Amino acid sequence: MQQAGVLDVGCHSALLTVQRWRPGSVLEPVFSHKVRLRLHETLDRRGRLGKAGIKSVQRGVAEAIAADPRLRLAEVFAFATSVIRDAPNREEVIARVARATGTWLQVLSGEEEARLAYVAARQWVGPEAGPLLVLDIGGGTVEVASGTGDQPRLARSLPLGARSVTRELLPGGTASSRQHLNEVRRHLRHCLSAAPGMPSAEKGDRVVACSRTFEQLARLANASGSRPRRSRRQLTLSQLGATIRLLAGVGPERRAALPGISRHRAEQSLAGALVAESLMVTCGVESVEICPWSTREGLLLERLGASRNPAGQRGYTGTGPLPHAGEETG
């Protein structure tokens, strides 16, 4: 049985995931290893990754790759998300990590991340699901994709991720007043509605939300609602409104004690909730289904041949060769 690995280097962690797949089966976990990172704490005002951040990435990549001595580097696709992709010193970071670890981090465009999230969600819901709308909130960007087949007809990426909105509009992760909160809401909805080609959900569309942001919001909303046993795999717009009021009423330290909110995401959780609400309103969505798969799983599915990819890795924007299955990443 063929296996492949993906090393996902993001703001909060470097996560190595190795999985298997065979026709007619689901992805089968083989091995995973997470190294905690806190790259947002090393960013300067321009978004450059400082020396401490670069060393943290070097350590995280080296530790993740070395975690399984049976793993061949050729099996791993290593990529960096927006915290490195959008950094002004991105090329320096990638080069220094490559020199220190032998692993060249690839960089996918936001649109390619949106496409891969759609690929993963389509495989998860199945082809019989019909028209599909996928919403994904990352740290730096928001991805939206829609379509009816294996590949999306539309894939968009906007710089409205939870970390970005926190840094620019909610310093310290808090709103100073209800007026401040509503100003952020209006700004987000204006940016989303003004973006060209934003899709609207039609009757009968399956709407799924990917990412840890949506997952944690759903866990909190269902734990604190009137029906605590309700599935954590659904999140409604009305639940989201109540969740925003809860998050806005406490600081990041107290949020970390709430159900579903992890300590390292507590500061950006309010921004994530506001972005989620604005996305749902802009796309005309009353409820989303939480999908556990996203870009990482989309990459694994394509490298394992479980999903058709006629266009190839067209969104790659980094330096160095783009590997396909069986080729080394650095």
At a glance:
The chain has 330 residues and is α/β, with parallel strands linked by helices.
Approximate strand percentage: 15-25%
Q: What is the number of helices?
A: 11
Helix and strand string, N-terminal first? EEEHEHHEHEEEHHEHEHHHEH
Mean residue pLDDT:
88
Rg computed from alpha carbons, rounded to a whole number of angstroms = 19 Å
Cα(first) to Cα(last) distance is 25 Å
- Known CATH architecture of the largest domain: 2-Layer Sandwich
What's the number of extended β-strand segments? 11
The backbone outline, from C-alpha atoms, is: globular
For the biggest β-sheet, the strand order reads: 8-7-6-9-11-10
Biggest sheet character: 6 strands, mixed
Low-confidence stretches: 310-330
* CATH class term of the largest domain: Alpha Beta
Domain count:
2
Q: What would CATH call the homologous superfamily of the largest domain?
A: Exopolyphosphatase. Domain 2
The assigned structural class equals alpha/beta
Oligomer: single chain
**Share of helical residues:** 25-40%
Q: Please name the CATH topology of the largest domain.
A: Nucleotidyltransferase, domain 5
Pfam family, one: Ppx-GppA
Organism: Streptomyces piniterrae
Domain Ppx/GppA phosphatase N-terminal: 18-304
Region (Disordered): 308-330
